[in-house]
Amino acid sequence: MITFDSVSKRYPNGHEALVNLSFQLARGEMAFLTGHSGAGKSTLLKLVMQIEHPSRGQVFVDGQNLSRMRIGQIPYLRRKIGVVFQDHQLLFDRSVFDNVALPLVIEGMEPKEIKRRVQAALDKVGLLSKERLNPISLSGGEQQRVGIARAVVNKPPLLLADEPTGNLDPMLSRDIMHLFEQFNQVGVSVLIATHDLALISRLRHRMLTLGQGRLLQDGFVGEVGV
Ligand code: ADP
Ligand code: ADP
């Protein structure tokens, strides 16, 4: 689903955020991306989303070489990728339903199909009963669930998350990780950047560790000493 082939990323100020990075995330695989602040985790995710571009090497997503992609194709790539942010980026001027519906409205989907899809996504995150509320009235954990529903509503084959539990307490964080596992179990490929090693130490998944833009470790949680 994701291939990095000898990828380096140097920002215009000269800082090298990723150095000769190679790895693959298989279709249907779930992995954590860890490392200290500044290790390059967000940069890696931005390269997958085509928000940033490699200085050297190649990135492939779902078999497509991103450096060969025309600008007009980028929206189609983004539709294949659901993204969950630490601060969920919900809009507080509209309901939970309308927040989750947004990606489908942008695609121009039929209202009837939008309703079915949004309700299915809200049901999966346990928030169907709150579809009419404004997200501002929800707890932090519930707001993050709305963010996840919005990320999966158009059934992307790939789900990316950047510190999705950064603002949540340990119990809510475990619930959120469990949700990601459930999407993975129905075939979605999942890559989650987190520096919360205590949280993932009990989850049996692959863990890629970055340090100063290099891949330091690649193994299963537990095997690599976490
Ligand atoms: P992480 O997500 O692991 O905290 P980042 O990918 O955000 O790491 O950052 C990796 C390094 O690249 C850091 O040293 C950061 O300061 C630098 N960096 C990130 N974005 C930019 C940018 N737009 N311009 C210059 N340097 C950047
Ligand atoms: P279908 O369209 O197959 O009838 P539903 O619309 O009932 O399925 O369920 C759609 C929900 O499935 C999405 O809103 C989302 O919660 C979840 N989902 C997300 N990505 C996938 C995927 N790749 N495969 C299966 N289900 C997914």
Automatic annotation (TrEMBL):
Pfam families: ABC_tran. The keyword DNA repair does not apply. SUPFAM superfamilies: P-loop containing nucleoside triphosphate hydrolases (SSF52540). PANTHER family: CELL DIVISION ATP-BINDING PROTEIN FTSE, IMPORT ATP-BINDING PROTEIN. This is Cell division ATP-binding protein FtsE. PROSITE patterns: ABC_TRANSPORTER_1, ABC_TRANSPORTER_2. It is a peripheral membrane protein. InterPro entries: AAA+_ATPase, ABC_transporter-like_ATP-bd, ABC_transporter-like_CS, ABC_transpr_LolD-like, Cell_div_FtsE, P-loop_NTPase. SMART domains: AAA (SM00382). It is found in: Cell inner membrane; Cell membrane. Residues 2-226 form the ABC transporter domain. It comes from Allopseudospirillum japonicum. One of its GO terms (cellular component) is plasma membrane. Part of the ABC transporter FtsEX involved in cellular division. Important for assembly or stability of the septal ring. GO terms for molecular function: ATP binding; ATP hydrolysis activity; transmembrane transporter activity. One of its GO terms (biological process) is cell division. Belongs to the ABC transporter superfamily.
